[in-house]
Amino acid sequence: MSKFTQQPTDDICIATIRALAADVVGKANSGHPGAPMGMAPVSHVLFSRFFNANPKNSKWYNRDRFVLSNGHACALQYILLHLMGYKLSMDDLKQFRQLNSLTPGHPEAGHTDGIEVTTGPLGQGFANAVGLGIAQAHMAATFNKDGFDLVNNYTYVFTGDGCLMEGVASEAASLAGHLQLGNLIYFYDDNHISIDGDTAVAFTENVEQRFLSYGWQVLHVDDGDHDLEGIYNAIVEAQKVKNKPTLIRLRTTIGYGSKQQGTHGVHGAPLKADDIQALKTKFGLPADQSFYVPTETYKVYGEIAIRGAALEKKWDALLASYGQKYPKEYAELTRRIAGKLPDGWEKSLPTYTASDAAQASRKLSEIVLTAITPVLPELMGGSADLTGSNLTRTKAMVDFQPESTGLGNYKGTYIRFGVREHGMGAIANGMHAYGGVTPFVATFMNFVSYAAGAVRLSALSKHQVIWVATHDSIGLGEDGPTHQPIETAAHFRATPNLDFWRPADGNETSAAYYVALTRRETPSILSLSRQNLPNLEASSIERAAKGGYVVHEEQSEDLTIVSCGSEVSIALEAASLLKAQGVKTRVVSLPCWSIFDSQPAEYRLSVLRSGAPILSVEALSTFGWQKYSHEQFGLFGWGASGPYQKVYEKFGITGPNLAAVGKKIVAFYKQKGGEVISPLVKAI
Amino acid sequence: MSKFTQQPTDDICIATIRALAADVVGKANSGHPGAPMGMAPVSHVLFSRFFNANPKNSKWYNRDRFVLSNGHACALQYILLHLMGYKLSMDDLKQFRQLNSLTPGHPEAGHTDGIEVTTGPLGQGFANAVGLGIAQAHMAATFNKDGFDLVNNYTYVFTGDGCLMEGVASEAASLAGHLQLGNLIYFYDDNHISIDGDTAVAFTENVEQRFLSYGWQVLHVDDGDHDLEGIYNAIVEAQKVKNKPTLIRLRTTIGYGSKQQGTHGVHGAPLKADDIQALKTKFGLPADQSFYVPTETYKVYGEIAIRGAALEKKWDALLASYGQKYPKEYAELTRRIAGKLPDGWEKSLPTYTASDAAQASRKLSEIVLTAITPVLPELMGGSADLTGSNLTRTKAMVDFQPESTGLGNYKGTYIRFGVREHGMGAIANGMHAYGGVTPFVATFMNFVSYAAGAVRLSALSKHQVIWVATHDSIGLGEDGPTHQPIETAAHFRATPNLDFWRPADGNETSAAYYVALTRRETPSILSLSRQNLPNLEASSIERAAKGGYVVHEEQSEDLTIVSCGSEVSIALEAASLLKAQGVKTRVVSLPCWSIFDSQPAEYRLSVLRSGAPILSVEALSTFGWQKYSHEQFGLFGWGASGPYQKVYEKFGITGPNLAAVGKKIVAFYKQKGGEVISPLVKAI
Ligand SMILES: [Ca+2]
Ligand SMILES: [Ca+2]
Q1: What does the record give as the active site (chains A, B) (predicted)?
Q2: Does the CB of A269 have a partner CB in chain B at under 8 Å?
Q3: pLDDT at position B2, please?
Q4: Alpha-carbon torsion (A303, A306, A312, A316), positive or negative
Q5: Which end of chain A is more exposed for a tag (fewer CB within 10 A), N or C?
């Protein structure tokens, strides 16, 4: 494969892709034709000459991964998937951007066969691919043996200027260079056009020099519109260098073939009908036919599928003989590829009684990780330069590092992400997309917000990523309001398909991990304290795993306090003070709203029952607690810097003050009269 | 000032700062001594030889700006402010990180005299400084005249590895190079240590090469611990180059003087008492005295203050004579420095009647900008490469660009931010901190989340930044769920001191701008539609400026629907359908929750009154609406790609379906019996 041979069918294949892109976007009357038309040549060379995948089994583990980081160009990806024979018909192409189609406006993993990661939000795909590369390197180091090069795929990425401007891509690029990920090959579609027009208005950096500074191999092809041999040779060079990611800068013409080629007029709007006709004529295609695919084109792309099927078959045989020679590793590899948890793993989860010492939930998290990582070797992750604060590195862990650094190796499971939260989140999505690993990532809870763009894509794309988010309230104390989350819990509780956990003690922390690990299609954020928390009398993994339960019961109560995390023990103190004053107060712990919401109505109504007012207490914004309570106590502004006990006092989150607040509420509802109905009782 | 002369007091001053840093952190028993100790030499050279500021008037407009991007090193900044005579006493230093002190754990603008921008969240200060530089360049171009170099300050920035790893800094750095901001001088404290230990674990990129790729001047000083002349000369070189920002890489030893110097042991924990004593002895300071400042040190720093006061006096005279020669420009400059809006500006705001054509609120926003930018020339901003979609560039605007690009000039007010949302948000904070400009920024609402780290600091630091956040729901249609915000409104509504507006029509859009522009200490997000919205009968700027009001009144109603933005007209349609079926339905528009919350209780209770159930409707997550309604209708998962009317239908947000939902609710509450009390009636 080291020398390029022009095939008579190359031109027609490229023309087919370009014309189809114009047709797909034209019929939808919505979308981006320019980049697909400009990137047709590189797509054709990559897929016809290099790409190893089996369209009939898009989940074959050792397939090459393809990421379209400039996801707005997805007409291109859909066309390629269709031509190669993935589950995407010509009718699907005609339904581009229509409701309930397989061809939505941006590519969605899990929705369309052959899409590895969801892209469109710029920069994400770029960083996802670094995660794909990390997982590949790790699985290869862990499972490959002499003569059994089972895991050796490449990850190929298309990226535009937009992605390269995004900080998340910069973060991921710097880390990829540090990690020497030679399995990554990126094509930068340098077409000089972005939505605002010529990139000269905002993007004049020297991209090649920038990627060299990150430690990448950088190549370029000056005529990406025609120089197929140049593209071919660049890919060969990229594959040769094993200890560096490669960026191939391709100078292309956006919307190549259109009358408006090279302008931003072809970026995000369909071509006019006459323009489409003219370009078909120019390319030697029938001008009057839409969605036309010449037989030769289907044949060439069908051969890619045949090649891929043969490769998978060969691989299956290799895996089988690996199973003969290395039965233990085989069992483990196939279990991990299948995404199954080992039987009985949950028995390793620590449990506690109320007499156990108070500990910070970040410390409890460390204890969980120490207990479970030996039985769940697929747990792979790290922290954004807060290892000693997040407590995410267990003593037994080895750093995931290139051997040459002397700091670890690719078998290592602990990743030093650097201060790169957004990159970390997006990389974790890619790691999960690769399969075989379950990623966890860590930072202070306040800085999960830096990664919001990646977190919402974890949730949308069903990537099981576990966030260890420590220092989760004013309870972090001295670092002050710049570091104290207020709005953060509301943000993530409002996100669909995301479990936000704020455990109150040891058993609840174990429960959070238990549920997070078993929810294979849902990311979780574990919001953990810096300060020590006593173990509750009533907690257990089983009870907490319901998302909410009664931690202190009273019959014919005057008040229920619902709380979570570090405030549950304060609520219990308030309840005890109130009891001494004759006010019967139940306390409910609600560590995870989304899981609680999924319980049967009867259970939920037994926990947050009618009959007495319910007061919520949390050392964060009260926003959202109205769903579960009649009255809310929390922070109504920013936090403060100081020793944490004093900060709690300042904001009135203490047993005595909450008891006073509770009495006021009880008096108010008594005076108001009438039955107090649970806020969970709803018409819709 | 072009040649360095060693002063006999230099060493003692540097030793004072280093010892004070150890004492300040030691007494607090919390904080970061290492960077302050390592950066004492550069601080001393910069402030004693170059820095122009008047500690007695920290708001003097033409002062040099200092940004400590590695804000965790704030013991250093507090010490410098104290020594120079800002309003920060030795007692304040002793109260470091204590509750209600002027010396919180990270520096907060508006809280402590002399702090320009809030730092600590890494990367923010780096990007804020680019905003300071943009505003300086713009104000200089706009107001300076021959012989009147009124605005010519520098912005000096300290940054560590942490900031340089953050994507937000990469984004800002690339833009600063493009914009050729010669007024920016950054010092990179290259101490090879971050929280995870040696930077070799995660940060091995070539920083000098990277900044060269961005178009910066890059210098270095190999011995930042001792080479004062080298530091001095680097600053001189930096000042000489007028068309490039400068990065000076200083190789320093973290915690210089400590027994643990050069290790991560001195990064984030106090030094031991014996270590502090030993370093004082080493530096020739009395080992047994804490918080000791030699007379010479106070004298040297007192002279900086004297120099600064004289500079301000001279500047005042220059300004006065400018006022003689250019009275109009003088009036405008002083108005803008004072942050006053011109009288009667609000008369330019467009108003509408119900017969005016339906328009997208993003278009209504463009009409507002077109109307008000001529009377509010301080409005300066742009879009993250979505100008044609956000509609933020009025026809009269000129691009803010270096003249050499041929694309604009520094007088221009329109900024091409590139696809750099987080950088854009942080830059806008810096622009506001500079004064004289009112920044606005734009992207799709979903991608404001990329900038969450900067948005929360706008709110915390009271930066009046206006976000034009278009494409604000499933109403964007074909781009699909990757671009359709769901959780975004909840996130920003939960943020303190942030006004999140979702206007329903033309008058409400004008109201949103009116309030956003008059709220001088609060950032605003204007959430705007892609799709057309009819003008409401009942809307007016005055009514909408209350944050919530009745758009359709009924007496003895059966139901109230509360909504906002593009769903208000759908709610009105539902009300009309319900009326035809005998169900009397009021409709309330609630474009801004925080503003509505600030109205008198009586008003709020008249809008969302007791007596009938209240149903909220919004094409976003229902999260948070429980505060204003008994029942909630909205999105319970992700959106979908397709023409927007079909997407609305899919999720049941149509007049007929809402009417059906409304009837169900009315029946439920009738059956339930008892009085229906407004959710605004609360005990606390
Ligand atoms: Ca481009
Ligand atoms: Ca450092």
Answers
A1: 421 (proton donor)
A2: no
A3: 81
A4: negative
A5: N
Radius of gyration, alpha carbons of chain B: 28
Q: What is the pLDDT of residues B149-166, one digit of tens each?
A: 999 999 999 999 999 999
The tokens for A495 are 């996100």
Query: Dihedral angle at the C-alpha atoms of B308, B312, B318, B320, nearest 10 degrees?
Result: -170
Q: What percent of chain B has pLDDT over 90?
A: 99
Q: Which pair of structure tokens corresponds to residue A632? A: 């809310």
Per CATH, the number for A345-533 is 3.40.50.970
Give residue-wise pLDDT tens across range A52-81: 999 999 999 999 999 999 999 999 999 999
| Residues in chain A, total | 684
What are the residue ranges spanned by the domains of chain A?
37-310, 345-533, 548-672
The answer to whether B68 touches B116, Cβ cutoff 8 Å, is no
Q: How would you label B95-122 residue by residue, b for 16+ Cβ within 10 Å and e otherwise? A: bbbbbebbbbbbbbbebbebbbbbbbbb
pLDDT in tens, A524-548: 999 999 999 999 999 999 999 999 9
A301 in Cβ contact with A13 (< 8 Å): yes
Enumerate the β-bridge partners of residue B441: B382, B467
Nearest Cβ partner for B483 among A106, A170, A677: A106
Cβ contacts of A97 within 8 Å, gap of 6 or more: A28, A30, A31, A103, A104, A105, B478, B480, B641, B642
Residue of B nearest to A30 (CA): B478
The four Cα atoms A112, A114, A118, A119 give a dihedral, to 10 degrees, of: -110
| Nearest CB neighbour to A487, from listed B200, B456, B668 | B456
Strand order in the sheet with A155-159: A65-68, A155-159, A184-190, A246-251, A217-221
Nearest to B476 by CA among A116, A455, A36, A120: A120
Q: Which fold has domain B548-672?
A: Rossmann fold (3.40.50)
pTM over 0.95: yes
Determine the pLDDT at residue A2.
81
* Cα A467 to Cα A293: distance, rounded to the nearest angstrom: 46
pLDDT of residue B291: 98
Catalytic site includes residue B421: yes
Residues from chain B that touch A407, judged by Cβ atoms under 8 A, are: 200-201
CATH class of A37-310: alpha beta
Tokens of B317: 């005279």
Inter-residue contact B166 to A163 (CB < 8 Å): no
Q: Are B126 and B189 in contact (CB under 8 A)?
A: no
What is the number of residues in chain B? 684
From the list B119, B140, B214, B132, the residue with the least C-alpha distance to B460 is: B119
Regarding an ipTM greater than 0.90, the answer is: yes
Strand partners, A586: A560
Q: Which position has the token pair 């590949």?
A: A136
> From CA B362, how far away is CA B357, in angstroms rounded?
14
- B37-310 with B548-672: one CATH topology? yes
Give the pLDDT confidence of B463-497 residue by residue, as tens digits.
999 999 999 999 999 999 999 999 999 999 999 99
Mutate which: A119, A166, A664, vs B, most B CBs within 10 A? A166
Distances in whole angstroms, Cα of residue B495 to Cα of each of A226, B452, B525, B593: 52, 10, 11, 11
Q: Does A196 reach chain B within 8 Å, measured CB to CB? A: yes
Tell me the one-letter amino acid at B113. D
**Whole-angstrom distance, CA of residue B391 vs CA of residue B393:** 6
Identify which of A382, A396, A380, A393 has the alpha carbon closest to the alpha carbon of residue A436.
Answer: A380
Q: What is the pLDDT of residues A168-177, one digit of tens each?
A: 999 999 999 9
Tokens describing residue A73: 């160009």
For the annotated binding site of B for Mg(2+), the residues are 161, 191, 193
**Mutate which: A108, A415, A421, A491, vs B, most B CBs within 10 A:** A491
